[in-house]
Amino acid sequence: MKAFIFDLDGVITDSAEYHYLAWKALGEDLGIPFDREFNETLKGVSRTESLERILRLGGRENDFSVEEKGRLATKKNEHYVSLISNITSADILPGIEVFLSDLKEAGYKVGMASASKNAQMVTHQLGLLDAFDHIVDAATVTDSKPHPEVFLKAAAALQVEPKDCVGIEDAVAGIEAIHAAGMFAVGIGDPEVLTEAELVFTDTSILTLDHVLARI
C-alpha cells in the first residue's frame, strides 16, 4: 500500500451531529420530522441526495422545483456552517493526529475523499490541512458516494493506483465507494453495520498503522 484516503465526517472529526441538527431543523420547517435512525441513512450521502431522501420520507419529493430544492439545500448548509464555525483541534477524533503523523513518517501519501462541500474549511479549522497531500470534496465531483469518483480522484491526485490505496470510512455508502474504486476498505463504527469492510475499528482510538498493515 502506498496511500491512505480518509473520509472526513465520522473519521477525522464528528461533525455528523451538526449535519443531523441542520437537516432536522430543515425537516421540521417542511413538516417532515425524522429521528436519528433515519439520519443514519444520510451518512456519506451528498447534500442533494440527502434532501431528496428527506422529501421522499415526507411524500413531498414533487412539491418543489429544482431551484427551490437548491435553495433548501443552501439553507441547510448555511445552518450547518453556523453550527461548525466553532470547531477547533479539540474536535479531532481520538488517535487521528497520531495516526496521520505515523503515516507521514512512514512515507505514505495521505488524501481525503469527503462528501462534504465544506471539507477544506473544516480541515483548516481543525488545524490539519498540512496533514493531507490532497483533499477532494463534494464540490469537485459529479457523482456522490457510493459512486467511486471521489476516491478515484483522490488516488489520481496522489498519483497512486487505486489498488495501492486504503480507504477509511464510517458509512455504508463510503465503504461501497471504496470497493467500487478497487481499494482496501477500513470501517470506523459498528462491525454489524459495516459488514462489507475488510477491517472495522469500533472507534478511532484503536485505529493504528500497525493494526491496519497486519490485516493487509
UniProtKB/TrEMBL annotation:
It catalyses: beta-D-glucose 1-phosphate = beta-D-glucose 6-phosphate. SUPFAM superfamilies: HAD-like. It holds the Pfam family Hydrolase. Keywords: Carbohydrate metabolism, Isomerase, Magnesium, Metal-binding, Phosphoprotein. GO terms for molecular function: beta-phosphoglucomutase activity. The keyword Metal-binding applies. Belongs to the HAD-like hydrolase superfamily. CbbY/CbbZ/Gph/YieH family. This is Beta-phosphoglucomutase. It comes from Exiguobacterium marinum.
